[in-house]
Amino acid sequence: MLPYAAYLRVYEPLTAFAESERKVWADYADSRDRPRRANALNAEHGESVMRLLGMPPQPVPAQESPNAYLRRVEDRLYVCPWQTRLRSWLAFSRLRGTTPVKLMDHLVPKAIAEQTADDFDRYKRQAGSDALRTHIRTTAWHVPPSWFVPFDGNERWLVLGSANPGQDVTTTTGRNLIYVTSMAQARRRTARALSVLRRHLGDVAANFDVEDVARWLEEFHPHSLVELDYGGLVHLMDDDALQADQSVAELSAALTGLDTGQEELAYAMYQRVILRWKSMQLLESAN
Prior knowledge:
- This protein is α+β, with helices and mostly antiparallel strands.
- It has helices at 19-30, 37-52, 84-98, 101-107, 110-127, 183-201, 210-217, 239-244, 247-259, 263-286; strands spanning 5-13, 68-73, 76-81, 136-140, 156-159, 176-182, 225-229.
- The chain folds into 2 domains: 1-136, no CATH class; 141-287, no CATH class.
- Strands 1, 2, 3, 4, 5, 6 and 7 form a 7-stranded antiparallel sheet that branches.
- InterPro entries: DUF8083.
């Protein structure tokens, strides 16, 4: 929903949903009107912009989104609901909890902020804690190192742009960098990473947020798919930068180096990942 954001998504098999939802998603998959993958991010972002630029601004949509990202593997349908309303509530709660009151009042009128918070509280009371599970995690201006852990370098899918003369390649459509893996592999890799970090770094391991990702993955069907999508971040990177980005493989090498006593290798690989994404984050303040 953010222009320069990356996404960590879980696609659950259709059988993981309640029976009433299965028909809804099956019909949705057959619909000609649903947003296609190539335009889905733009559609989702456009909806958010329209709400926030309205008078007054609407931080959370009135209804939950009926849309989802879909994948098919050997005729099996996998669904990742957008959950735009829930994700907006969660993001708004984080913003409200970390923003000074006076600044918050300038961003969103107090009456609307309080109504939004009341609506979310009512939703939580009625739906229960399980209803707070989101299939999509979002981060702006960078990819956290912990998000690379569930994947292998060979699961990388890169699509580069084709610019017209004089056109900046970063503005062309269709460019993307994603990783996709099975839930079983994702859980195995995060468990291994946690074990390595705890064994060699002790309490410091908690600073890497791998445990948080591991717990999140455990909330979903064991036959799900897990996807890391660079999303809007590709617009901050030219084709050479995208081709050179091997963050998943480099972080894996860092963990292997740490586990096998190759401390210099571990440090070098980890620093390569950290410096790449710190330089990306600096672009936020430049804008």
